[in-house]
Amino acid sequence: MKEEIVKLINLQEIDSEIAGFDTDIAKKQQIITDREQSIQEKKEAITASQEKTEALLQEQRDTNAEHEDAGTRIKDRQNKMMQVQTSREHQALLKEIEENKRLLKETEEKVLQIMEQIEAVKVEATELENLCSGEKELLEEETVTVEKAIKKIDNTRKKVANKRTTLSKNLQASSLKRYSKLLIKRDGLGVVPAIERVCQGCFMSVPPQQFNEIRKGDKLNVCPNCQRILYYKEKEEEVADEK
Ligand SMILES: [Zn+2]
Predict the structure, then answer these.
(1) How would CATH label the architecture of 21-169?
(2) Ligand 1 mean position, distance from CA 182 (Å)
């Protein structure tokens, strides 16, 4: 049985290694996904600035029309001034002329403001476009690098996977079945050490008698709490492990 446990420990090591490869590959793919998303966000921002520019241009046209209308009204009222009889009518026309003159000034200022806004949006859009094309170049470079890296990981992964196939053939069908189920149910960790009576999978204590059995290693022991397969391991000395 001791030999079987050793095989299971080795299998667990291989499976953890394989899981590590998967995590590495996912991380590399994430770089590309993040970059693509960033580019997409900039494209959307560029579209938004184009729409903003369109809206501002429309506002500019409307304001120009208002400006022209005010000018026309002023001329019209000035002409009418010649024909009015009473001072009351005269006053009313003067008032209208004043109002339209105010409108002339207002619309003129507004058009200037709109032009400034259009200019600002244009600067912003140019900046975004530059960033976007820069990121597109980066994406191309990153895609090449990531593809290479993933290929490399995949090659190593295949070798490790072959090792796994060989090893799993040497295991008893029952223990392999039990281990495989645990691997799925216990998040990739089916075989764990018990150190100082503590299961290193769930960190609960194992009863003393069972711990003795684990130490002997004569039969397959499972954690009473998480059901992971347990093996005996000495407590490691506290060493600064900087890998
Ligand atoms: Zn446990």
Answers:
(1) Orthogonal Bundle (1.10)
(2) 11
